[in-house]
Amino acid sequence: PRLLSQFFYADERVSRVVAEINGLDAEMDPQQYLVLLNQLHLSQSHLLAVIERIMEECIPTQRHSRDYLVKFPEELLVDNLGNHMLFAAECLLAGTFIELEESDSLQLRPQARNLLCSLELVRTVLREQSLSQPSTYSEAVRAVLVQFDRLFAEFELSYVSSLVAVKSPEEIYRQQEIIVLFCETVERALRLGYLTQEMIDGYEPLLMFTIPRLAIISGLLIYPEGPLSLEQSPEQMSRVFSPFYNLLKKIRQEDWGGGRFRVRLWPRVSALTRCPRCRDLLWVLSAEELALLERSLCTAE
């Protein structure tokens, strides 16, 4: 159960696979080479997971901040992101990386070298500790772990920033505004009986459609100065809704293309919308009509 003992065996597996790869002629047996590469990937992933748990146990208050992760696109935030970073560092150091510009590769190569050297030092120190005192952590272990954690975080941020467009502070703030809007929408929907707590606790699939639909109504009508404010330009709006800026304007303006639907649901409103003073369809809805609209948006249709 001791983490240092788990590290010892995980480190042994990595070393064994590396030795097999080094002793294999890839051109003579390409299939076996691919099998060993996959084994190396899995064993390194397990090794990094054990080191991560050791850092949480050994230096919990000295970990480098990972606040920068909020800047990353959501599709990059996967469980094995650390293993991808290690593989990228190895490729950069070997000069075989093709996804980056040459200037970015040259800039990242020193960081990749420092990271891999730090990892080797961590493996050496932890291996010695596991053989001598597997129940405690020495100051030398703490020092190399702190250094490795810092270098890993710095490389991760630099590498991802070179590969994809990370979110700016303004975009992060706009995303937080959308989160607040969705939370306010859910609270209001629960209060009005559009949703139930059981639906939320049970992760009802329909909510994936219902909550964004209700959030659009809330953002345009109830919180018009919030993140869906049409007084701002599309560039100032969160990327969640900016592609639909013109559509959001149509929902509010009198030239909205839902004439047949509008007349069928609200015959009285159709006359009002022809008035120049009543430009916004949502603003002229009565409380009953707004409730009818929102309940319709909560259906699966």
| CA gyration radius, whole angstroms | 28 Å
User: Strand portion, in percent?
Assistant: under 5%
Helix content: 55-70%
Which class do the helix and strand fractions yield? Answer: mainly alpha
Number of strands: 0
Q: What would the principal axes of the Cα set say about the shape?
A: elongated
Cα separation of the termini: 53 Å
- The number of helical runs is 12
- Output mean pLDDT: 83
Main sheet: strands, sense, barrel? none
Order of helices and strands: HHHHHHHHHHHH
How many separate domains make up the residues? 2
Poorly predicted sequence stretches spanning 5 or more consecutive residues = 254-279
Task: Pick out its properties.
mainly alpha; 12 helices; elongated; 2 domains; 301 residues
Care to give the gist of this entry?
The chain has 301 residues and is mainly α. It has 12 helices and no strands.
Give structural notes.
The chain has two domains: 3-163, no CATH class; 169-297, no CATH class. The chain has twelve helices and no strands. The protein has helices at residues 3-22, 30-58, 81-94, 102-132, 139-163, 169-192, 197-201, 207-222, 245-252, 259-265, 267-272, 287-297. Helix 6 crosses helix 8 (207-222). The protein is elongated, with a radius of gyration of 28 Å. Residues 254-279 have low confidence and may be disordered. This is LST2 protein. InterPro entries: LST-2.
